Amino acid sequence: GTFTHQFDTPTYKGTVSVNLGLFINGEFVDPVDHETIEVINPATGKVITSIAGGSAKDIDIAVNAAKKAYKAAWGLKTPGSVRGKLLNKLADLLEEHIDELAALEALNTGKTFATAKAADITGAIKTFRYFAGWADKVHGKTIETTDQKFAYTRHEPFGVVGQIIPWNFPIVMLAWKLAPALATGNVSILKPSEITPLTALKVAGFINEAGFPPGVVNIVNGYGSKAGQAISEHLGISKVAFTGSTLTGRKILKAAAESNLKVVTLELGGKSPTIIFDDADLEQAVKWASHGIFFNMGQVCTAGSRIFVQEGVYDAFLQKFTAVAKFLETAAGDQFTPTTKHGPQVSSGQFDRVMSYIGSGKAEGATVHAGGERLGTNGYFVQPTIFTDVTKDMKIVQEEIFGPVGVVLKFKTEEEVIEAANDTTYGLAAHIFTQNISRAIRVTNALEAGSTFVNCALTSETSVPFGGYKQSGIGRELGEYALDTYTQVKGVHINI
Ligand code: NAD
Prior knowledge:
This is Aldehyde dehydrogenase. The protein has about 500 residues and is an alpha/beta fold. The chain is built from 15 helices and 22 strands. The site of nicotinamide-adenine-dinucleotide has 29 residues, from helix 7 and helix 8.
């Protein structure tokens, strides 16, 4: 079936339609088991529509279609320039429909229409264009061994890749996965999060319109335990790329190990530090630290959730940081109200999870410096929350909350804060605020994190590699590095 929604809001007026089926072999089809999954508006808790949910049977059908497409019309059979042209055409279509996509993304995730448009849809478009540019620039090397012999390398696609994505930035994650995979000549079975499937379904329609051969991109919605598990176990899939929780990442790695040893790349969780030294520009530090933990209602894998402040600026920082949290609370609202700066958590499950961490912080004796309660009575809103008087063994300091909840810790010395910042099983990102360039670089080098940000936060550049140290992941996305993770290298030996 089709879902059609008439938006008549202060920020967006228009009609948006999406096909609700599974997108397999260039067609929208019903799942074999006819399962449906409800999609909820998190600002109200009300059902938006129901989408088709796939199972192992549908994944199998999709893998067969993808294999055929790979052999007949994709891989290195299609010149890189042609693959790049199709990716650019897809980007053009997203650009033409940017308002519709932003409206759908906002409705489904709870982020505002303005943010969805400026950050999410725009970010997805940039990603498709960036990798479109790489599509005809993937090539190997010649290695001279002796006068009589040489070798060369070929960077070959894997073939069918499985891609499993989360709900916090649905269309951005889709682009981070599809764009490099297609640019390097792979075909994909992509599974969106069952919580936020709508923009992916809209993109599926544009895949056909752009002119990709049927079966090159298959978008199969479904639960993680069904369609997701089936992707990680399928013998016809050579690589799985996953973004989501560390717990699910372990399951996927295990399923890959026990099936066909498919290559696995993982982008997982974090508990990233934000470190503010006495010599920081305080206004900037407050601005970025707040953005770092409250943007997207804290549902960001690189969120700066542990905020370390040097003793000289601790009081001044805390006062200004608290003011931001209180302001955001007053600016809470729905996706389509122009003044909204703070939205709901994405789902009731996520709301419960965040509230339970807040409860645990209180029970363990931390001080609630701001927030700490549910916000309003409709939907899944949580007050922007700041905890102080925390100790390093508390759950709210150790575990990823994935909500608008920051813990603030005081420190004295650089050595002490480096040790405390690294005292986590995660290693996704770190943020450092100082005016001293030597200190910034020294601390950056000492931190165990895949990305560090000096005097900024949550900046994402398509050209810069992204991924985790420690239990935050395996492999890198974005930049030239992404081409390596979507190709396998063949060494070819020639005897003259
Ligand atoms: P999740 O792990 O529950 O789900 C992510 C995806 O995996 C969904 O599509 C889900 O259906 C699927 N899935 C669930 N169980 C599965 C299984 N057994 N086999 C295969 N697939 C399965 O995570 P979430 O709750 O959607 O997202 C929040 C988490 O994701 C947070 O921990 C966050 O840090 C992390 N995250 C990381 C990044 C990153 O780039 N590192 C980005 C966004 C989110």
